[in-house]
Design a protein that fits this description.
The chain is α/β, with parallel strands linked by helices. The chain has a single domain, classed as Rossmann fold, CATH 3.40.50. It contains nine helices and twelve strands. It has an eight-stranded mixed beta sheet, with helices on both faces. A two-stranded antiparallel sheet has the order 5-6. Helix 2 links the parallel strand 2 and strand 3. The radius of gyration is 17 Å and the shape is globular. The chain starts with a strand and ends with a strand. The relative contact order is 0.20.
């Protein structure tokens, strides 16, 4: 069955609210809005002024977790400083979900994570979650969208190590000795996605990908490559598989000659395999219908 993916070229506060409303989903209770707060030095992360009205509409809390690499968001105090410096504390309540530790989300199925996903303990404070993702390239995953934001992004520092090492270690320093299984890493992200969806329930989640500032590098990069493609727009869906497949296809089929570097990165890293595995795990459909809301 085809899933609906809504699209607008209007990358603005109004466009973001309009596309969320098109989903027809009322996220209830205490709403977590999962974004990347951006590594200091980077500049492509979602602009607080772009997202503030939508976060306010949801009465949402911006949530993040610490990184597994030793940058400026590895330690909690440094991460809070980055959140403040990047302007997110000015627009909404913010929460580093693994500030007080982690919990294990159990799930069935998968090949690598042994049914365990380590996430920030504060996840239990929320009833629903909006995955508000900046779609762009990524040096390890090929691209980052809804599925990466929901897996690596929601994982605690140790949980990130668990996913990156394909279920071998939860030690962020040790994990770098176990990052040679690329397809296993991509499959592990999909498994972590299943754990998060099982936790909240699919009816309590929604997904928005903002496709602008399209660097080949992630917002976790402190010195990202400048974007080579023009901004595209905003995509939204209730299906995390369909939205990432649609964004991937949009890049691949673009007539923008600046896509070459990103296409190469996605192909070299077999990026679409996360989408394939998420579909295999029953998280959504790779078949979609684009609904323009302009």
């Amino acid at each position: 069955m085809q899933s609906k993916v809504y699209f607008t070229k209007d990358i603005s506060s109004n466009g973001l609210i309009k596309i969320y409303e098109a989903l027809g989903r009322d996220l209830k209770g205490k709403v977590a809005v999962k974004i990347s707060t951006g590594e200091p030095g980077g500049h492509n992360f979602l602009n607080p002024n772009l997202i503030k009205d939508l976060v306010a509409k949801l009465n949402g809390t911006i949530v993040e977790c610490c990184t597994a690499y030793r940058g400026k968001r590895f330690e909690v105090a440094d991460h809070w400083q980055a959140i403040k410096d990047h302007g997110f504390m000015d627009i909404a309540p913010c929460d580093i979900m693994d500030e007080e530790g982690e919990v294990i989300l159990s799930f069935e199925g998968g090949k690598h994570l042994q049914g365990k996903n380590y996430v920030g303990s504060h996840i239990n404070n929320y009833d629903s979650m909006l995955m508000l993702s900046h779609f762009k390239g990524h040096a390890m995953g090929g691209f980052g969208g809804a599925l990466k934001n929901m897996s690596i992004g929601v994982a605690s520092r140790n949980g990130k190590a668990w996913i990156h090492s394909v279920g071998i270690t939860t030690d962020p320093d040790e994990m770098w000795n176990h990052v040679d299984n690329q397809d296993g890493f991509l499959e592990s992200m999909a498994e972590a996605d299943k754990a998060v969806i099982d936790h909240f329930g699919p009816e309590n989640m929604a997904y928005i990908n903002v496709v602008n500032n399209i660097s080949i590098d992630c917002d976790c990069d402190s010195n990202p490559h400048d974007p080579e493609m023009a901004d595209i727009g905003i995509f939204a869906s209730l299906d995390p598989v369909a939205i990432d497949q649609c964004c991937y296809d949009t890049i691949m089929n673009s007539e923008d000659s600046g896509k070459a570097s990103l296409v190469k990165r996605m192909q070299d890293l077999h990026a679409i395999h996360t989408v394939e595995e998420a579909s295999n795990l029953g998280l959504g459909s790779r078949e979609y219908e684009i609904v323009n809301i302009d």
